[in-house]
Amino acid sequence: MTSRLVISSENEEFLARVNELSGQVITLCDQCGTCSASCPMVDEMDVTPSQMMRMVQLGQSEVLRTKAMWLCASCFTCTVRCPRGLDLSRVAEALRQTTLRQAADHININAIPRDELAALPQIALVAGMRKFTG
Amino acid sequence: MNSNSVRLPYYPGCTLKTAASSFEISALASAEALGMELIELPRWNCCGTVFSLTDDDLIHHIAPIRNLIRVQEMNRDGILDNENRLVTLCSMCFSTLKRAELLVRENPDKLKTINDFMYLEDDYNGDVTVVHFLELLRDMGREAISEKVKRPLTGLKVAPYYGCMMLRPKEVGIDDPEEPTIQGDLLSALGAEVVYNPYMKLCCGSYQTMNEKDAVVRLVHDILSHARADGAQVVATSCPLCAFNLDKRQKEVKETYPDFEEIPVLYFTQLMALAFGLEPGFSGFDQNYVSVEPLFKDRQLIPE
Fold first, then answer.
1. Are residues A70 and A24 in the same domain?
2. CB A13 within 8 A of CB A98
3. Which one of B54, B170, B241 has the shortest CB-CB distance to A123?
4. Does the pTM exceed 0.90?
5. Would residue A127 count as lying in a domain?
């Protein structure tokens, strides 16, 4: 079956915005899949890192509804391995920030049981709050 | 303190004062044994833990740069004698401070904005170099380390775990991002038998431990069961968040994978303090969830 994709000006604007926020030229991605093969969190993701890159290339803002961008732990494994020199950690951060800057937090700290929060060291709490809240 | 000791500014970070105090205590004592005096930065503040990755965001670089200004002040006030290396222990603090150092070095316009914003502080002049304690130990050379060893860790099989932040990205990594040896080299100078674990640089899940515990449990299981399978008796690390996930999360790993065999996780500095024959308190083994004491008593590394 053949499907037709039409790239609208909205799609182009979304790509331009993610390029700007991440400082990356996302169209350079040639979909080799090295990032997806390297990602420690890929088992839990709904789309793989390379699929996430493809969605951004096509300007599909639905990427903002994926679980994958929140599961990225900023471990930079894909970043050191990308043969195109792209920093995917920055792309995932740009996607997270696009949502967080609309005052839409990813986590509700009050929903995490008190005893679990109390057991976490500051390093986990500060990093988690920085990544999951605006 | 020996008058010949090298005085270096030191940034602890939040967790080394609480959950990872055994890391700080053992590192400071080991540094002293090696002729280094690590002087805590006056009025240090949280580095922010993670380096901000969006191009238009400068506000989150204020915190790390403010800490670098404190190093300048220590030199200005005569606490240090022209010493611009800032020593870190925590891998996440290292990464955040180091990347901020490089960011403003490469972007004078961004530095100017940051300096203008912090108008009550001295301007940051860009001279500070953030280093990880492991780099200092490597630069001292194997001989300088091994000659301080009083109680060699002979026969103890240790798997170094590197995690992410001291290796990646490349511009801040202290060793080869794919085949690091810096921690293993130190452990071998202490007399330990270094176990190669291909999962030594697999992310432990980091701060996802807050929200995605199942993923962290899977990763910790993979990292530790491979270390075990390769013969390791202990895993060594340099990051309080890795240490939390690798040690404390073994409770949940055991619940999910009943066949899992627990393994103690220590900071590399605890092993160093032990090998240097420093007082047991300096090694602080009591903070661990999985106790190392039965193993060490069995090997006569600590008293019965």
1. yes
2. no
3. B241
4. yes
5. yes
